[in-house]
Structure prediction request, 160 residues.
Amino acid sequence: MRTIAYNRLAAVAYARRWALSRNPIYYDFSEIGGDCTNFASQCIYAGSRVMNFEPTFGWYYLSTDDRSPSWTGVEYLYSFLVNNNSVGPFGRLVGRSRVQIGDIIQLGKRDGTFYHSLVVSSTFPRILVCAHSDDYLNRPLDTYTYENIRFIHIDGVRIE
Prediction:
């Protein structure tokens, strides 16, 4: 297995292209729990081009009924990215100042539960994000209200 670079420009180009609409290749989960992490996964896939088809702990989407929990679940995506030692994208938690375009930000409650995934589309002069559920293109992060936040930096992509 070897590691390749995560294509941040491709991830952000995808985020900007689909932030205010839906790619018909993927199901829109807006009416059944939210589409934010589905959208974040699509963006990560645009920048990685590799899925992980491990049945329980992988990260993949083939159809509405054939996808991993990590493709659409906030906590599951976090767990996959920071614990993935196999094929596909992998990352780690970083501070606000270390976040880069194409990275993922998750918003949460004071009790430690996280409920929303955002894709970083710009970091200067302020952090801007793209998101689904409530659709936004280049929304300033500082306009969100939240009690907890985490920044997931995508370090790279493992391929076989």
